[in-house]
């Protein structure tokens, strides 16, 4: 399984001055596994209709009833670019928000940029597509995601009870620094200007490197980059300390705390590398931001991210950090986490050839390779029902360890895209669509 789900910048920390040609390390699936197809008990299969929202809503009532009791519901995607995965998660999100008290949906996207998108969508005459291109990684820049955001925008304009778009990833540092600088300027009595100014300078360096890493032959001063990142981490620590007593209104303090946490998680990659001599597990960082999103007693959140992040077990067999993010979140909130995986066997999906995903990575449609013999996808595709979900805890003796596919933002969907799993190690439930199509690019 390719380590494409670690911190977006972590691999670059190990690079030479020219990073564009560095290959991603791989951890292939163990050669020895039973290739016999698992014949699933028909009683496990819960058919789902994609004909309409109302038909879907009726079919998933038992599944939603389980989700509704949780504080954190994670809706995964087996690829970052499958149309049906976006639509199904939009419908589930709508049900949970309209009927079960969830008010936040958080994407695998930068926390502060997602906040800015949420705020911008509330402005009169705000156009959805340009805002998506400004604030979302390119994996989210599709028509299916636009449907969710348009629904959120319409709801918030016509209802007193407001819903919120959030992010629980940390990549872009400039938005954090700019928002903190704006607060420091607006409230000079808080005495934060020196720290926020220093952070903003470091953030510009950080984001400049990240935005250029995909360019062939791009070179940068690696030693200076590492020093900049570590210095910025310590600056954010001082800023967090200062925020505890800074003279800020309560709402502005809460905003600043979120921006500062996002910045700290962003720069923690450098701290872990320089001080602890290890990678900062991206799944752990996502879990920390999730914890921030549900810090209130009655807060609940719906997470949208790749299956590999939301699963309770890491896709990397050499990972001793305790992830995926689902494992960290479960430990933080015992019994309050529900994760739904989504999977497919054939069709097309959107992906990019860029080494690192950015806001402008070009997405194109690619065919899914035929599932490995003996994989979960091969067994699930043999079920006569084209779209269904199953509860993993009901698998019993059929809960066998077999290859499970995780396709990221890159075009590969072959043998290196699998990790060995029992389904219960990953999900509470799995929603399977036998044949899918690539997400539709924004117009």
How would you characterize the overall build of this protein?
- With 443 residues, the protein is of the alpha/beta class.
- The protein folds into two domains: 10-169 and 286-436, EreA-like (biosynthetic domain) (EreA/ChaN-like  fold, 3-Layer(aba) Sandwich); 174-282.
- The chain is built from 16 helices and eleven strands.
- The protein has helices at residues 10-13, 53-59, 61-67, 83-99, 111-121, 128-135, 143-158, 174-186, 193-212, 222-243, 250-274, 282-293, 307-310, 325-332, 376-381, 423-426; strands at residues 46-47, 72-77, 104-110, 164-169, 301-306, 337-351, 364-367, 387-391, 402-405, 418-421, 429-436.
- The strands form two sheets. Strands 1, 2, 3, 4, 5, 6, 7, 8 and 11 form a nine-stranded mixed beta sheet that branches.
- Helix 8 packs antiparallel against helix 9 (193-212) and helix 8 runs antiparallel to helix 11 (250-274).
- The longest helix is centred in the middle third of the chain and has 25 residues, at 250-274.
- It is globular, with a radius of gyration of 21 Å.
- It starts with 9 loop residues before the first helix and ends in a 7-residue tail after the last strand.
- 48% of the residues are buried.
- The model is unreliable at 1-5 and 15-30 (pLDDT under 50).
How is this structure best summarized?
This protein has helices spanning 10-13, 53-59, 61-67, 83-99, 111-121, 128-135, 143-158, 174-186, 193-212, 222-243, 250-274, 282-293, 307-310, 325-332, 376-381, 423-426; strands spanning 46-47, 72-77, 104-110, 164-169, 301-306, 337-351, 364-367, 387-391, 402-405, 418-421, 429-436.
